[in-house]
Amino acid sequence: MYLKELKIKNWQCIEETDIKFENLMLFIGQSNSGKSSIMSAIMFFLKYRNFRSRDLRNGTNFLSIEGSFYNYYKQSFQVADMTITGKNIHLKVTKTYDGDIYYFVFYNNIWNRITEEEYQSITEHVSILFIPSFSEKEQTEFFILSLLKILEKRKINQPKALNKIVATFNELQSEYTSRGLYRNLLFEIFGVLAQYSRDTGHSVLDNTLILFEEPELYLHPQKQKELFFNICVLTKLGTQIYVATHSNNFINLHMYKSICIVRKSENSGSKVFQFKGYLFSGDEIKNFNMNYWINPDRSELFFAKKVILVEGQTDKIVLGYLSKKLDIYKYDYSILECGSKSLIPQFIKLLNVFKIPYVAVYDKDNHLWRTPEEIENSNQKNRIIENSIKKDIGSCIMFENDIEEEIYQENRERKNYKNKPFYALKTVTNKEFIIPEKLEEKIRFIFK
């Protein structure tokens, strides 16, 4: 069975939120935003952990977690006098402050109460592996033993490389070993599982659910990217892997359906923001996917408190430098180079659906040397940007006609634009350079 959806109410820092699952889920957000609360709610719902008094949200006396599963193998479950079957299975667990935990299954259009044992007879068909962020000897040992049990249950002979990993782990236990080495061992395990799955054409873990907190810990960037690749291999072949991460090496722009941003507010607790629809069509899809390969660092937009969308390299370099010179630069803001004016609306679409604050910075491009046709084409693109803005989420500001003309305070010739990032930075870093008043106003608006 595969987990499809979860509705969480009054669990830890969560007042109420819904999650729709892909095989790969990427939970991201600021520290203390509620990512771990979501992980623990999933584990409690699947009977992987017990209830603890602090699980009930402060000030409330009732919690509920309701979920649905995709019954891939069309199994039938006998609970009480009911035979639960079909493609979708719905379960619910509730708890009052001073009462018992109650379990329910949805049957004949109503919630039917069942025993804990009957509830578990259904959830046990989802095998779970949990890797906490503080992986050390005990956690790594537990993960390996659980993994071997799952492979044995599925009557799969351990890959030779996995046997080698077990032997290596046994050697590590004989002396003090750093957390980094244990994390590296987990990295090697995922590599073995992914390669074995690719060779056989299906995931060696089948419908196992892996919860992985901060997989990037103790791994350098190159290994983070390789681990994420192996995770993607396993999820494409059927394994469910839910990752809580702070690293943009685990985020792909074109995999936005897997991204789940967790935000916490004082009034309504932690909530999940995700988008399961289709943002782009036709050439937009190709262009957006190409954006990732041209500059994978653009994935950092999902971690930003505010995103500053700019056309190109010159804008990014100059705005970054001058905002620091004005002492208004913010490290939790991201300046994102979109590649061209035409692509800014695609990023605006993405930021709109995830409700990430932004400001779109673009050039008017009505230079004296442009033809009437070029000016009209530019104005049309400007209007598209302006019409894409959702005013409760983002804003926009326009350079006249571009940042170079703002810097030099003069009309520029076409020939002046060769190596423009270098010459623009050379100009603004000159000790005698004074930021023009209008440009300073725009920079302060951008970073407000």
TrEMBL record:
InterPro entries: AAA_GajA/Old/RecF-like, ATPase_AAA_core, Bact_Antivir_Def_Nuclease, P-loop_NTPase, TOPRIM_OLD. CDD domains: TOPRIM_OLD. Signal peptide: none annotated. Gene3D superfamilies: P-loop containing nucleotide triphosphate hydrolases. It comes from the Bacteria. Residues 302-365 form the OLD protein-like TOPRIM domain. This is AAA family ATPase. The lineage of its organism: Bacteria, Fusobacteriati, Fusobacteriota, Fusobacteriia, Fusobacteriales.
